[in-house]
Amino acid sequence: MTPTTAAVTLFTIVTLGYLALCAVSPFGNCRKCRGFGFYMKTDRRGRPRPGRICRRCHGDRKRIRVGRHLYNAAARTRREGTR
Fold first, then answer.
1. How far apart are CA 83 and CA 70, in angstroms?
2. What are the pLDDT digits (tens) for 41-79?
3. Could you tell me which residues come within 8 angstroms of residue 36 by beta carbon, excluding any fewer than 6 positions away?
4. From what superkingdom does this record's organism come (predicted)?
5. In the chain, N or C terminus with fewer CB closer than 10 Å?
6. Is the Cβ–Cβ distance between 40 and 48 less than 8 Å?
7. How far is it, in rounded angstroms, from Cα 27 to Cα 19?
8. Structurally, how many domains does the chain consist of?
9. CA atoms within 13 A on the CB side of 30
């Protein structure tokens, strides 16, 4: 197997795996708050405490994956184009 064929095969496997992940679980943890829904801060003793609500996910703790967002946009464009 040549290096080019191996790279194309690996890329195809990774892409199909990500597509399967987006189909099975379209939402992932928020990258900003790491799925907590709020920022972590510490009190005077150094213990972690919940801070304010996350601005990116608004406390929902989840975000839509990039692949699912692209799929939704393509499906919306196709649906509006065939009307």
1. 20
2. 888 888 888 888 888 888 888 888 888 999 999 999 999
3. 50, 54, 61
4. Bacteria
5. C
6. yes
7. 13
8. 1
9. 17
In which band, very low, low, confident or very high, does the pLDDT at 20 lie, cut at 50, 70 and 90?
very high
Chain centre distance of CA 40: 21
Determine the 3-state secondary structure of 82 from DSSP. Answer: coil
Give residue 9's domain range: 3-81
Q: Hey, what are 44's tokens?
A: 């005077």
| Under 8 Å between Cβ of 72 and 63 | no
